[in-house]
């Protein structure tokens, strides 16, 4: 259980921060950028939830919890020593990826196939979900970049890859199952 009885610590005043294993790194480190952007995704999901209800809101709540799991995973480097850790680190699982895939498949069945690219917009919820999609894509790029240099749980990058697809399909559901999608018209304003 986490107990936060003091919010500021002053330990980062010189531009460094502690990872989950206690290692201090610059605040601009690739790992900090990756999990910081995951936190940003979570904030955009919170904004989207202001416009969501029912099953979509429940799914978004699960995603927010998953995103905290993902941040916890990314802030703990040195996966090779997981078994020796005093407190085993929380790692993303393939089951979390599988759940997203199942939800994407269900949403795909509810919408007509696309015949054009979709512009972000339509309903307020759809527009917010498109913002979630683009920020999650950035988080994925940063996570993949981190994985090129350091150990990263493969389920973490898979989750981010599926998550942006989830947001895309959910944005279509939020636009009356795609009927109110705003479609791109190539060269319309030439």
UniProtKB/TrEMBL annotation:
<dbReference type="GO" id="GO:0008817">
    <property type="term" value="F:corrinoid adenosyltransferase activity"/>
</dbReference>
<keyword id="KW-0547">Nucleotide-binding</keyword>
<keyword id="KW-0169">Cobalamin biosynthesis</keyword>
<dbReference type="InterPro" id="IPR029499">
    <property type="entry name" value="PduO-typ"/>
</dbReference>
<comment type="pathway">
    <text>Cofactor biosynthesis; adenosylcobalamin biosynthesis; adenosylcobalamin from cob(II)yrinate a,c-diamide: step 2/7.</text>
</comment>
<feature type="domain" description="Cobalamin adenosyltransferase-like">
    <location>
        <begin position="7"/>
        <end position="173"/>
    </location>
</feature>
<comment type="similarity">
    <text>Belongs to the Cob(I)alamin adenosyltransferase family.</text>
</comment>
<protein>
    <recommendedName>
        <fullName>Corrinoid adenosyltransferase</fullName>
        <ecNumber>2.5.1.17</ecNumber>
    </recommendedName>
</protein>
<keyword id="KW-0067">ATP-binding</keyword>
<dbReference type="InterPro" id="IPR036451">
    <property type="entry name" value="CblAdoTrfase-like_sf"/>
</dbReference>
<dbReference type="InterPro" id="IPR016030">
    <property type="entry name" value="CblAdoTrfase-like"/>
</dbReference>
<dbReference type="Pfam" id="PF01923">
    <property type="entry name" value="Cob_adeno_trans"/>
</dbReference>
<keyword id="KW-0808">Transferase</keyword>
């Amino acid at each position: 259980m986490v107990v936060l009885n003091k919010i500021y610590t002053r330990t980062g005043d010189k531009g460094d921060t502690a990872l989950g294993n206690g290692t201090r790194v610059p605040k601009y480190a690739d790992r900090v950028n990756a999990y910081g952007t995951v936190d940003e995704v979570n904030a955009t999901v919170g904004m989207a939830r202001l416009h969501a209800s029912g099953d979509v809101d429940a799914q978004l709540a699960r995603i927010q919890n998953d995103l905290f799991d993902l941040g916890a995973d990314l802030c703990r480097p040195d996966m090779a020593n997981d078994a020796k850790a005093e407190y085993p680190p929380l790692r993303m699982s393939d089951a979390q990826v599988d759940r997203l895939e199942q939800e994407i498949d269900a949403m795909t069945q509810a919408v007509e196939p696309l015949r054009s690219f979709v512009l972000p917009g339509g309903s307020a919820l759809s527009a917010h979900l498109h913002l979630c999609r683009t920020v999650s894509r950035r988080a994925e790029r940063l996570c993949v970049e981190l994985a090129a240099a350091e150990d990263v749980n493969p389920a973490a990058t898979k989750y981010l890859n599926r998550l942006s697809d989830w947001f895309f399909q959910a944005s279509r559901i939020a636009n009356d199952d795609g009927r109110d999608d705003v479609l791109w018209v190539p060269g319309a304003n030439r």
